[in-house]
Fold these 4 entries.
Entry 1:
Amino acid sequence: MLPMFIWAFIVGGLICVFGQLLFDVAKLTPGHTLSLLVVIGAVLDGFGLYEPLIDFAGAGATIPITSFGNSLVHGALQEAEQHGIVGVLTGMFEVTSSGISAAIIFGFIGALLFRPKG
């Protein structure tokens, strides 16, 4: 069980290091960096490479933002098999809706509890 934790730490850390390098070396903005990481996760899932990474690294691959791209494509492909082209849109929303809803709700609660700056 310890090797599983170690690999999760290493893989998640490498994804984060890659994102930090995009900030520091490539001088990308946070929006560009996040978008690129989501697209990378989506492309990897499109080629069938992200699920084996999740099987290998567990939370090290599901926690970083690349997993959001994976979820979008994975849901779209699953629903497209069952419902055709309409399933592409509904699949993306079906799989990611709970995470997006949670982010909105917890962001709102955080704004109520603390003084937002901006």
Note: The helical segments are 2-24, 30-46, 50-57, 59-62, 66-83, 85-113.
Entry 2:
Amino acid sequence: MDYLKAFLVGGAICAATQILLDNTKLMPGRVMVILVCLGALLGAVGIYEPFAKWAGAGAGVPLTGFGSVLFKGVKDAVDKEGFIGIFKGGFTSSAVGISAALIFAYIASWFFNPKMKS
């Protein structure tokens, strides 16, 4: 049941994003920024963490989950280290996910033939 819930929630977030892309003139980069900021905002208000616990990976994998992780990392670092935590909290909280994405993308490039779009 957890897999189904994660699939449905993640699919709903992605479908809403696709609708936003199709029905507005917003560029994909701006939509990505909106999703990260929305996740951080919902995390700041205290909505995203209970939602993510309920939805599992369906809420943690999309960019809204990344925004929530960034906010939580900054908040924890500020509580622990003060002002300097504003600058290092987001990096320390999201470093593993970003590193994994880069490493797996590099490994995938060994098996596929990546090339620049022309």
Note: The chain has one domain: 2-111.
Entry 3:
Amino acid sequence: MGLWDTLTGRSRSRPANLDALFLVPSAAITLQTAAGLTPTGDGAVCYRAAAGAAFQQTQDDVVALLNADPDVPDVRISTDEFGFTWLTAHRDPADTSGLCTDLHAVNTALEAQGFGPGLLCSLVPFADASGRHVGLVYLYKQGTFYPFAPTGPQARDNLLEIQVRDELGRELPMERDLGRWMALWGAPGL
């Protein structure tokens, strides 16, 4: 951080550390024992698709790579109401490591081809026996995680989100600025 940034009160965001996604499997064990939340087996990467053949080729290559395993369901691509693209992968819920590897591959491929600025977040959903859902969201531009627990249209369970944040605070780089805890209404898997 430079002198001007210090004087104006600005700070630079943390660079993305995509390897932090590999911390999610151990965090999943903590969530299961502390809150009864287990992985659903779904995971998604959200990004703003770029126009042009280069981006389309990169996205097609990523999809082909993830679809190459015949034992894993094909990935799905959808666009939300805000124009963001969601690439959704599915694995056996017990294979959170494999799912995080898939999400890492998507992020890395887009970043390597120069499309990193379009990456928004990665999402790993969890659920419990009572039907509560919470997504563990990795903010690409901040290099941090936060929980998002929707309870219905435009409603969220803030208490569960704070509980998850507190449980995982020692295992994951958690986003401390609550203003960055975006609501991901209609996100795949939630």
Note: The longest helix spans residues 96-112.
Entry 4:
Amino acid sequence: MPEGYSGQGFFATSFDKVIGMARKNSIWPLPFATSCCGIEFMATMGAHYDLARFGAERLGFTPRQCDLLMVMGTIAKKMGPVLREVYLQMAEPRWVLAVGACASSGGIFDSYSVLQGIDQIIPVDVYVPGCPPRPEAILDGIIKVQELIGQESLRRRHSERYKELLNSYGIA
């Protein structure tokens, strides 16, 4: 070891990378499917596309065990508080994937009863376009979430900017 080298900087950097690699290759998705995008997600889970190749084969249907919320389909305004509660029950760190036009922007349903994008009530990390999106697009969204997770610093969730983002959504 060189003289005066403590090794602390190397260890912290390597530890961030190891944790990022482990997180990105073991995503536990929580599907919140309400419409046709959910059917495309089912195809993505099937043998032909096989989402398990990306370390996301363990679907959880309880928010306390999952770290990726996949919102697929039309979200009515009455369902908004339920979706928000599901998001809040998830443990940190948590990520959100908005699948399809309806979850991203309300889609073709520009009416008083449809939420015009889930980013009005919870923060979204990755958007998947399409109506409905093909399974390949959903896989691409998962890969983008993995890239985000792998590059995310362990300190990001404790930063002032992240806390301000949560406060802007009314989440403390």
Note: The helical segments are 8-24, 36-45, 80-89, 100-105, 135-151, 160-168.
